[in-house]
Amino acid sequence: MLKTFTKGGVHPAENKITQDKAIEKAGLPKKVIIPIAQHIGAPSSPVVKKKDQVKAGDVIARSQGFVSSNIHASVSGTVAKVDHVVDASGFKQPCVVINAEDDQWADGIDTSDALVKDIDASAEEIRQKVLEAGIVGMGGATFPSHVKLSIPEGKHVDTLVINGVECEPYLTSDHRVMLERAEEMLVGIRLLMKALGVEKALIGIENNKPDAIAHLNEWLGDDPQIEVYGLKVKYPQGGEKQLINALLDREVPSGGLPLDVGVVVHNVGTALAVYEAVQKNKPLVERVVTVTGPSLTHPTNLLVRVGTPVGELIEAAGGLPEDTGKVVSGGPMMGKALKTLDAPVVKGTSGILVLPQKWAHREKELHCVRCAQCVDACPMGLEPYLLKQLAERERFEDLEKNSVLDCIECGSCSFTCPARLPLVEYIRYGKTNVNQIIRNRKQQ
Amino acid sequence: MTTTVLYTILSLSGLGAVAAMILYAAAQKFKVYEDPRIDQVEEALPGANCGGCGYPGCRQFAEALVKADDISDYYCPVGGNDTMKEVAQILGREVAEQEPKVAVVRCNGSFQNRKRTSIYEGPSSCAIEASLFGGETDCQYGCLGKGDCVEVCDFEAIFMNEETGLPYVIDDNCTACGACVDACPNNIIELRKRYKKDRKIYVSCVNEDKPAAAKKACQVACIGCNKCVKVCPFDAITLENNLAYIIPDKCKLCRKCVDVCPTNAIAEIGFPPRRNKRRNAKKESADQEQSKNQS
Hints:
The structure holds 2 protein chains of 2 kinds. By secondary structure, chain A is an alpha/beta fold. Chain A folds into 4 domains: 27-101, CATH 2.40.50; 123-279, 3-Layer(aba) Sandwich (Rossmann fold); 295-360; 373-443, no CATH class. In chain A, 29% of the residues lie in helices and 20% in strands. Chain A is built from 14 helices and 17 strands. A 6-stranded mixed β-sheet of chain A has the order 1-14-13-17-15-16. In chain A, a hairpin with an 8-residue loop joins strand 5 and strand 6. The radius of gyration of chain A is 21 Å and the shape is globular. The termini of chain A are far apart. By secondary structure, chain B is α+β, with helices and mostly antiparallel strands. Chain B has 2 domains: 37-91, 3-methyladenine DNA Glycosylase II, Chain A, domain 3; 101-294, Alpha-Beta Plaits. Helix content of chain B is 38%, strand content 12%. A two-stranded antiparallel sheet of chain B has the order 1-4. In chain B, strands 2-3 form a two-stranded antiparallel ribbon. At the A-B interface, strand 16 and helix 14 of A face helix 5 of B.
């Protein structure tokens, strides 16, 4: 029997329209908008000013503190402004806007396709390169990767888990990376293993991607260190705690990190970025983005420069369909609806989903009938209906007692609710407030 | 038969008497001394339990008042100066007179003035909407229109105007308890000094965007043009982050700033109609233009 995680989970329709579409290189954008806070942690501080000339790969914002990340120019040209620009959710964010002129890369970056297999760098050098290259978790959470490679004292890591699950419906960017950039990605995995000092890496892939599993196995041959596992299809297997549970049968304690059970999880996209950073000296300035939707004429997988406006991606996929009701950044389960198509692609954008009007609106809410389907669906073993009610009544202390902070906001509860209650929205609201309360308590 | 009734009455009365004695003894033994002034002070307070004073309810506030040595920092916004004087009398202490205040909604982004550029279908709560995105309009600072302020008001002093999508304060009911101020995630509502006849002059905008962006998002946004700052004879207006603010203590309600404001972002409420013809002509032409734009 195939492995999967034990608690909860749902089965949304897969709709992987673009799984056979090879990665295309998107045309160079005329203008890129690069937010200086694309990661979890402290925002970076810009080091360029208006009218500066930059080349692709130049640092434009330096990381501030340990949990932070460098930001690089993704095109060469002139800095148009360093200012606040409206982001995907309608808030003004500090951004660096660059007018692209030509395609020049900064010195020392190897942009050839040649595979560099031999690993010369030491563990410390790999960590340094990852930090310099501004690599963050490419699965969507955008946690700075060098932090995950620095094991604090007293912790022991024995396994590296590579996340190739891609459990979100519609998205296929990781799938295509595993098929088309497998060799490079595997070198990236070996680099990560060296940086962590582990002997074993497991790649978890859902069983709806048999070609990727076969392809990776072919490349690995009988490598004893890296194993590929096909997993039973179930959402949200791509959550790191669920994946660890599925592959290793270990449970990350409440409020804990994968480190606590001796595991570090990285996405396949991150592994590829690590390869490019260490072996090719190329910072994270482009990523694969799935541009998809049921009414798009040419849904596709694009290799895009960070900062490209989303509108240009949709143009490349055949233009915005007339019946569009919503454009979502990310997948349909966890993605965020965009407020404007001028919003840029960031390091964590794994897909752009164009939904037709008939699917985009929310059905009328009914009353909770205590059917407990949300409890069955919750992969973290929480009680979403209760958390929603507590959040609605602003009983934040009780929310904290009911482990609201364990919620991974996967949306399984809202997906399964027959009364169509907006459970995740309320829980997220509760989480924000509980975090605030905890912060205040720490200050005191 | 009669004896049974008699025994029953006697035994039950006896039981009652014994229980009463035990209860009395227990009450004496475990008696907690409470300052009688707490009850008196509580009696004097309005009893709305609104929390405007910063305490959970009137009883807790009364306890705090009795305990405190100096009560000049304590204030019950609902009862106002009269109540505080009464409290001071009971406690034999001094209170400073405070200016009465009223809640003011600093946003005029009605449906007509501020275009909706996206649709929000989530839970009907400003706090949740604000945590998800910048709101249905292009102004990330303004009123979200889901009525969190209306929900928290204990005095029926604020309601949503269906036509404009904005909350309106009924000055007579408003006690300046501050519940709406805390509830608003965008900090639009402000407690301002209450002038005579409930007259008001304030900048009805909190948009900190640059002029072009602010004006594009909302017709009546403050664009930080500095005209009001220059014209004010009392130095009552400050400009920060492209946003003007009228300091209530300095403002003398002369309305010069209202005349010069190019976007009508400064609200004047409760004044009699003006005699100045030029101003009226200007206003009329502006109104006509607005109606043209709408049609």
